[in-house]
Every structure is written in C-alpha cells, then in structure tokens.
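note to self: dont lose this again. the chain is below, predicted strucutre after it. 480 aa total, dont forget to put it in the shared folder this time
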Amino acid sequence: MTAVYTKYNLLLEGGSLLSFALDFRKRGTDKLREACGVFGVYAPGEDLYHVIKYALYALQHRGQESAGIALSDGRQIYLKKGMGLVSEALAYDKEIIKEIKPVAGTGHVRYSTTGASRPENAQPLLIRSRQGCLAVAHNGNLVNSEELRERLEQEGSIFQTSTDSELVTHLVARYGYHDLETSLKGVLPYLHGSYAFVFLTENKLIGVRDPFGIRPLSLGSWNGHYVLASETCAFDTIGAETIRDINPGEMVVIDGEGLKSIQVLPSHRSALCVFEFIYFARPDSNLCGRNVHLVRKELGRQLAREHPVDSDIVTGVPDSSLAAASGFAEELGLSYETGMIKNRYIGRTFIQPEQKIRDIGVQLKLNPVQKVVEGKRIVVVDDSIVRGTTSKKLVEMFFRAGAKEVHLRISSPPFVSPCNLGINTPTYEELIGYSRDGEDIRREIGATSLEYLSREGMLKSVGMSEQELCLACFSGDYPI
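---
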C-alpha cells in the first residue's frame, strides 16, 4: 500500500483487498465505532505536517481505517492520505515535505459510516473549482445524503467517492460565490444530520458545527495561533491550550487577520452525543467543560448506588470501562483488580478469515487473569451491550478461568435504537436490547446477574440535562 503526495489528486495501490477486509471487520464487531476525528491549524511558518500528524495520533481512537493531511502554502493545497493507521497512511516523505512552506492545514482519521472503507473515500477530500482549492475533513453523518446526491447527479454532478462529505464540496462549488464563507452560509441549511467540518482553502481555515452540536469540535491556541480538533486530547499532545467548544451552528473563520465567529445557523438546543462521555472520547479529553475520565468514574459510582452486589472483586473491560469499574469499586468499598488483560499488539484492523477463528476473536484481544478471578465472585463493569456476542464470550471466559460468580454491570442504559448520526450501529433486529428485557439478556449472556445504569443516573453522572444531549440510542427519540 502506498500513498503518494500530489497537488490535486491521490494515487493509491492495492486498495480493494484492504477495503474488503476492513468492511468485513466492521460487520463482525460488537462495539460501537466513532465516525472520524478532525484537526485544523492556521500557523504560517510552523512545521504543520508534524503538528497535524501528532494531533492525529491523539485522535487515532476515533478512526483506524484511513488518515490524511492537507497543507496549504498560500497558493495551492497539497494532500497526503492513505489507508490504515496514521503511522501507515502518513509515512514521512522528507523531500516532498521539505518543499512545502505551509500556512495552514487540516487532518483526518476515518471510520466509515457513510461510504465504504476504500482509498478514494479517505479524507481530507480535495477539490479544485473556479473558486480555487478546497480541502474538507468531516466528522458526522448527513441523513439526507441520498436525496442530495440524487438531485446533484440529475443536475450533472459526477462523484468520485461514495461519502456524504463529497456532497458538501459539490454544493459549495455550485453555489458559485467567490468566498467560502458566503457559499457555506447558502449550503449549510441544506445539510441535515450531524457534522463537525474543517475546511481549508489556500489562505483560510474554517470550522463549522451542526446546529445541534451532535459531534464535538473545540477551539484551541498553539504558539499564538488557532487550532481546531474533535477532542482536546489533541491539543494536549501538541502543547496547545483549550479555549472553548465551538457552539452548535457556529462557524469560525481563521486567517491572517485572526479569528472571526459567525452564528451561521440558528440553534434551539444542544444535543451532544452522550456516547462521547460513555465510550468514544479519550479519558483525558474534556467535553462541555467536563473531564471524560471523571464522568466515567461517576457513572460507575452511580451504577454501584443503583445496583450494589455482594462480591469479592471488581474489574473493568479495557479500556473505556476501567474508570467506571474503579468508581463502582470505590463506592462499595470493594477491591478493584485487573481481571482482564488487553492485547495491544493485534490492532483494530485484525481480520478473522473464518467463522471458527472469529469465534475465538475475543480471546485473542482480551484474556482473564486466572489467578485474580479464580474462586472469586466478580463484578465485571462494561460501558454498553450492543449485540451481546462479546459480553457472552467475556462471561464464558471468566467462568472458564474459575470465577465462582460473574455479575455484569453496564454503565449506561439498554441500547435499543440504531444511530444514523455518525456512529456505526447494527439494525434494530441485531440490537439485543431492542426486543428483550434484562432477564432475557442475562440468560442469553450467561451472567450470574445483569443490571444497567438508569437514564436518570446517567444524566446525573454526566451533569447535563436531556435537552443538552442526544439520547436516541437509549430512547429512539432523535433530535433530527
């Protein structure tokens, strides 16, 4: 697999087999997957390639299928992207990087929810029109993408990718205004769904968030310059300071004159995806002024208050459930132990080629510590149950390792509805919580007991109201 720098196009080899493999992996997973991570920086005279690359390393958890960087030198935009992790897709090219004196840039890590996992769908997307060059990095999902694509195709548009992100570039080009700000003011009202966009022109960086703020986007300061990122952990990695979250419906324009904020779309309520707190975001990130690790710990504490259990030890499923598990143990005065080890060298792109091998896939990544759980009554804290297949295998592994009892505690309510707003989730029929109650699920999974955190307890732990969050996966009530 190679990724070649070009001014206006991208050459990739061997994409079809990897695309098939990544799609195959995605269908078999029992965990939710985020859509993408985006980053942008306006800082003339700085080594922006490495700054963006390091930021993307910090956002790698948000997407492992492809990665890319677009850089502008004030006259044209250069693009480098490819399939795989940041380290694979953005291998350093000394000669090409040496030639560029960038003023601004944007980066992207992708997990596909709209459009297959293929080289042509890797982002940033780069187009050239009579208005100049435009690179786009998108996190989210447009729910009216099929309608928009059909209308544009009828009017003569030719699409190079199968992503909903490309629709925006066609709409901007068709709107015809010379400056991007004016074009976006005309285009954004046509986009329905979730989005956090970072746009890059030859001399300008623009960040936009959807009117509900479903997907996160933050503004920071680095060496006297402005930066944008899906999560504040990217700011920490490059030594930047967080300024604030971009508001729902807000557009920030960053150029040589500084920063300008425009409320480009009216926002009647916020609806940040609550799973950012529960699972997606990195523990060291802050969302809405709240630290993700501390929120998860409080989720565990509240879960213990609602569903205590007489047990010997508490353990969490690595990595997103560890904070909740420690909070659960502390609240009840129980011993928190590392009862399960995660193999960190398989990677998220590991492919199981046959059903027989897929059946032992969980053991390849997670393994109980037998001497810790043997003969013990254990509480296993996890963040969610989606299909139930992983939970079932985890319970089986703990019993096989000698656990006397396995009590499963979930630090979120039952997952009952699929998401169309930027998260890859199964259909209603595949969701184990859609048509079964807690006791049915417990029997299916084989746990000694199973309890979920209440919706009220979750909101109390997060410290936000129903009108500030999207809870559609738990209620079926979508903000859009």
